[in-house]
Amino acid sequence: MVKKIQLVPTLLTYSFSEFKDKLRKIEKYFSLVQIDVMDNKFVKNKTFYEVNKVRKLRSYKGEYELHLMVLDPLKIIKKWQNFRKFKKVIFHYEAVTDVKKIFNLINYLKKHKLKAGLAINPATKLEKIEIFLPYLNFVFLMGVKPGWGNQKLDLAVLKKAQRIRKMYPKLDIEIDGGVNLQNIKLIIQSGVNIIAAGTLFFKSRNIKKTISQIKDLIK
Predict the structure, then answer these.
(1) 0.90 cut: is pTM over it?
(2) List of domains in the chain
(3) CB 42, CB 70: distance < 8 Å
């Protein structure tokens, strides 16, 4: 089954002003934006993710997904869950690990009409999360170790994408980390259908042209 490819820019920012500036650069090109949430506990980095400030930004008409690189994802979810533009959640297997707690979190998200995505780091075996795959809205593969942008994609992660696509042809597979114009075709061929990227877009001198180049590559 060939799934439509979606591009999602990632906002890894350290202040409200930086968040606004980055959002302004990409808001007219994308219907979904990912916010990188780091608590300086699960990863050694801390980012901006204040929902009350993000609510005030009226110019962006699209939706948000949260990539929760935190030890207590539910705490953040509860703060965001009543924000109408907040639609998708990514939380890490490595942050929770307990099977019952992960299922409880998936059920909580679905109960609140939020799409549930489970992320795994490059070093984590796919077998660790196979039990959850039938219950997820999407699976999230980290192409790099989480915490920082501008890293090189671990190509071994694409083997996980291939295996998931064979097992679950209809499941959305999202990847984040190390995506560039040189490897994006390989990523798509592995079965990934949602591509999250930060450096690819924000280091570009012409975002519209970069989007066009990506579309040409993945036709």
Answers:
(1) yes
(2) 6-217 (3.20.20.70)
(3) yes
